[in-house]
Design brief:
three-stranded mixed β-sheet; Ubiquitin-like (UB roll); 17% helix; 16-stranded antiparallel β-sheet; 666 residues
């Protein structure tokens, strides 16, 4: 008889659930959630809100948007458990979650209200490590240097796992190759109603401490078995007899990949602990083709503008041995283009904007050490802008050195001949009408701690550049008194910083900030007789998709002719990047800054401000973007028309600037 009652009850519940499943979820709201946002909690749930009617319709037609979502009581019950577990994992050990449903029979919809009682969160008052007492002094110092979890933090299961990974990483970098986690124990004490404490004990099995043993190199491609073994070994950041380090093993693999010789490079160590104290390693390699011809489709936002074009490149790997790379390339890149006839002259029109470049480059990856490389290149460049065309012949030698894991320095020496022809009635800056022969030394220091090359969600990027031109030509001129060739004499510096902050747990909402400051100053012969000004390709420009987005490329400046650039630049950009639906995202931004000829001209009244919004579509090679920029404050506009609110709607629509690009704006 009991069995019959159970079956009847089960069928009754199933019938109720089936009836509820006919109701479309109209909204999901929360009450009592003080520590986590509604969006964060919705992200945990499998039950979702139905898209708006318009997106349900477009989904049926072109699969843009989404289908209607109906209530499933069993899934909702599991969602409540997920929310409770989420609170538990974040230190709310006594949290509860319940739901109430409001049905609309006429519309066939249901509104879900999740009621949460968070309780008192637990804070870590004791953190102890077990099984690491025999580790080295260096390990113990690093252990307490930057902990993921520390006393006083609110308990978080994610942070506990992070601290376990942190400790294991330190152990494996200190010779304990096979270190592993035993267990973690959390003891919760409820001393009174206003205070909950958590004592965290982490247990590890460190095992034996190992040194690096013999290193052997294995080719996985029998047809290319002949290669220079020393090239591989010199890229290793360790040698036999050194203390085993997992991070140095990983970095050495990355260095092998950076040579561009191998399509696969792996350093394998024994899966089981060896009997002695040394770890042998096998470096397995699969080679890339020696010769490679690559057609290119160019789509980028170089010079703060949307560019498209094509090119052809040739690469020879291991050129003359020693892992050298020889690159030959030819590229045509256009920013705008007017249809031409056989009788037209593209280089002399005032519409086409683009560049043609041919380059030959030789890279020596090992230059005195495996942390330093040398690159030598020669190139010819035609840079066509609306008011001018510039022809450059360049010889460039560049040395790069890695100072630390995230810090790299570059020293460049450019010897170039620059010739500029004016195409419009706008006069060239004084001195540029004469071709120049320039020697330019540039030192760049870069520190990159962002977490993604295309769309960073946290970290920072800092860059400092110091540039000087004129020392070498001045020495030659002083030795050979009768030499007479114009050259630029100037100094220049640039400071660039980019910072990224995640605004939610899953890093889908990101606040991004950029600051760019630069200044250049002529000296010597220019100040004496106005000969040898700063070349156009070394000046600052403002406006464009990566600059102040209320203006087009090279159109912003508190200078007579912004197309010819200026000597002082200030740019600041603020962005809020957020998801919309699927791979689509949105951006709200504010940009401020301008371009001046000298620092004496910089005033608050001359700082331009733009605002706007953008759309992003995420792809495997970075987001495709379109931005709509509005001039919030235009210092060059007549008085009474400088601010956005002073503009008529028609004027506002005429001034909106649309930018296209690949990747984020910065």
């Amino acid at each position: 008889m009991k069995l019959i009652y159970i079956i009847v009850a089960f069928l009754f519940l199933v019938s109720i659930a089936s009836a509820q499943e006919n109701f479309m979820v109209s909204s999901i709201s929360f009450v009592g959630n003080k520590s986590f946002s509604d969006d964060e909690l919705r992200g945990i749930m499998l039950t979702k809100e139905s898209p708006a009617a318009f997106f349900r319709f477009t989904y049926k037609i072109i699969h843009l948007g989404g289908p209607a979502v109906y209530l499933d009581p069993f899934v909702l019950k599991a969602d409540l458990q997920r929310i409770k577990q989420y609170y538990f994992n974040n230190g709310f050990f006594f949290a509860h979650a319940d739901s109430s449903l409001k049905y609309d029979s006429e519309d066939g919809t249901v509104d879900i209200l999740i009621k949460i009682n968070e309780g008192t969160p637990a804070y870590v008052n004791s953190l102890r490590y077990h099984g690491v007492s025999d580790s080295t002094k260096n390990f113990m110092e690093l252990l307490h240097e930057k902990p993921i979890l520390k006393n006083g933090d609110r308990y978080s299961a994610k942070r506990v796992d992070g601290e376990v990974g942190h400790v294991l990483g330190l152990l494996q970098d200190d010779g304990y190759t096979y270190a592993k986690k035993d267990s973690s124990v959390v003891t919760v004490t409820d001393s009174n109603s206003d205070s909950v404490h958590a004592a965290v004990d982490l247990y590890f099995d460190s095992g034996r401490r190992y040194l690096w043993g013999d290193l052997s190199v294995l080719s996985l491609d029998s047809s290319k078995a002949s290669f220079e073994r020393h090239i591989v070994l010199r890229e290793m950041l360790f040698k036999p007899g050194d203390v085993y380090s997992f991070s140095k093993k990983t970095e050495s693999e990355q260095r092998l990949y950076s040579l561009n010789l191998f399509e696969a490079a792996r350093i394998a160590t024994p899966e089981k602990p060896p009997a002695n104290d040394s770890i042998p390693a096998v470096i397995s390699l699969r080679f890339r083709p020696t010769h490679e011809i690559t057609p290119e489709l160019l789509v980028n936002d170089e010079n703060n503008a949307f560019n498209f074009g094509g090119g052809l490149g040739y690469l020879q790997r291991n050129f003359l041995g020693d892992a050298r790379l020889l690159n030959l390339s030819a590229k045509l890149q256009l920013q705008s283009f007017q249809l031409v006839t056989f009788s037209s002259k593209v280089l002399h029109d005032t519409v086409t904007v683009g560049r043609v470049e041919a380059t030959a480059q030789l890279t020596q990856p090992y230059f005195f050490s495996n942390a330093m490389s040398l690159t030598w290149g020669v190139s010819s460049l035609v840079d066509k802008q609306q008011p001018y065309v510039q022809i450059l012949l360049r010889n460039k030698i560049s040395v790069s050195k890695r100072f630390a894991t995230f810090t790299t320095g570059y020293l460049d020496w450019d010897v170039e001949r620059a010739k500029v022809d004016s195409l419009q009635a706008i006069p060239l800056p004084q001195g540029l009408e004469t071709p120049q022969f320039n020697s330019i030394l540039t030192f760049t220091l870069q520190r990159d701690k962002t977490n993604d090359i295309f769309s960073p969600t946290k970290g920072f990027f800092n860059l400092m550049t110091i540039e000087e031109a004129g020392v070498l030509p001045n020495i030659i001129n002083s030795i050979f008194k009768h030499s007479d060739f114009p050259y630029a004499q100037y100094w220049k510096f640039t400071l660039l910083g980019k910072w990224f902050f995640s605004l939610n747990e899953n890093s889908t909402n990101v606040f991004a900030l950029k600051a760019n400051v630069g200044y250049a100053q002529e000296y010597g012969t220019y100040q004496q007789n106005q000969v040898g000004p700063i070349p156009l390709n070394h000046r600052f420009f403002a406006g464009g998709s990566g600059s102040i987005r209320g203006w087009r490329t090279h159109e912003l400046g508190a200078v007579p002719f912004p197309q010819y650039g200026g000597n002082a630049l200030i740019e600041t950009n603020f962005e809020d990047r957020f998801p919309v639906v699927g791979n689509f995202g949105g951006v709200l931004f504010i940009d401020a800054g301008n371009l001046w000829n000298t620092y004496r001209q910089i005033t608050l009244e001359t700082v331009a401000v733009a605002t706007g919004f953008g759309l992003r579509y995420n792809t495997f090679f970075g987001p495709l973007r379109v931005d709509f920029g509005f001039r919030l404050y235009d210092p060059s506009a007549p008085a009474g028309q400088q601010f956005l609110y002073q503009q008529s709607v028609s004027t506002l629509l005429r001034q909106v600037v649309v930018h296209f690009g690949i990747g984020q704006a910065f």
